[in-house]
Amino acid sequence: MDEHTDQVQGNGGLNRRMFGKLLVIAVMMFGFGYALVPIYKQICELTGINILTPKDISLKEISNSQVDLSREVTVEFDANTQGPWRFRPVVSSMKVHPGEMAQIVYEVVNKQAVKMDAQAIPSYAPQQAANYFKKMECFCFKQQTLEANEARQMPVVFYIDTAIPKEVKTITLSYTFFEVGGKNQSLAMAAQEQK
Predict the structure, then answer these.
(1) pLDDT value of position 2
(2) For the CA atoms of the chain, what is the radius of gyration?
(3) What is the DSSP secondary-structure string of 94-160?
(4) Which residues constitute the domain of residue 5?
(5) Name one Pfam family in it (predicted).
(6) CA-closest candidate to residue 106, choices 165, 53, 68, 151
(7) 43 & 71 share domain
(8) Looking at the 3D structure of the chain, how many domains does it have?
(9) In a designed cystine with 171, which of 105, 129, 138, 195 is the match (CB 3.0 to 4.6 A)?
(10) What number is the average pLDDT over the span 98-102?
(11) Contact between 123 and 174 (Cβ < 8 Å)
């Protein structure tokens, strides 16, 4: 009986040690999985793969803003393309109060018979306006895939920070829309040559 009891107690200690090791492994695996996201972002930034425009603002930040009705800022919209598409804003400008939510829509048409991957990069004039132009939603946050001859309307939801200097009365938001990687360009040229 004593031998059997010692063996059971010995197995209980072995089981506790095994459980402890497995628990440590599970915690390490969770930590590794959690760390993969920032590691992936760093690798993408270093290699230049899938670089996306980050969101400018969170919903928590916008809930604390107040509209400054005492002044208006004119926002002018511009579009440039590097590729086989038509790309333009639906309106050329609008007046907004600092802190006021606004929306503009850009239209894009893929004028080719092949699917294209594209990315939009924003720029601002005057350059200091970039610090005060806050986008909540924007097609520039991720790459766009346009099917052959597809037309799409893409919104930009934004507001101008109330801290914008009073001398800034006009901001130009300009997007350059370009093909990502250029891999479809050669396919499109080959397709046109066969016609």
Answers:
(1) 52
(2) 27
(3) EEE-TT--EEEEEEEEE-SSS-EEEEEEEEEESGGGGGTEEEEEEGGGS-EEE-TT-EEEEEEEEEE
(4) 1-51
(5) CtaG_Cox11
(6) 151
(7) no
(8) 2
(9) 129
(10) 93
(11) yes
Residues 104 and 137 sit within 8 Å (Cβ to Cβ): no
Q: Do 88 and 37 reside in the same domain of the chain?
A: no
Question: How much is the mean pLDDT over the chain?
Answer: 78
pLDDT at 52 over 90: no
DSSP label at residue 106 = E
Q: Is 189 among the domain residues?
A: no
Q: Would you give the distance in Å from CA 194 to the centre of its chain?
A: 37
Q: Name the nearest CA neighbour of 169 among 122, 116, 111, 126.
A: 126
Residue predicted with more confidence, 183 or 177: 177
pLDDT at 183 over 60: no
129: left (phi over 0), alpha (psi -120 to 50) or beta: alpha
CA 7/CA 5 separation, integer angstroms: 5
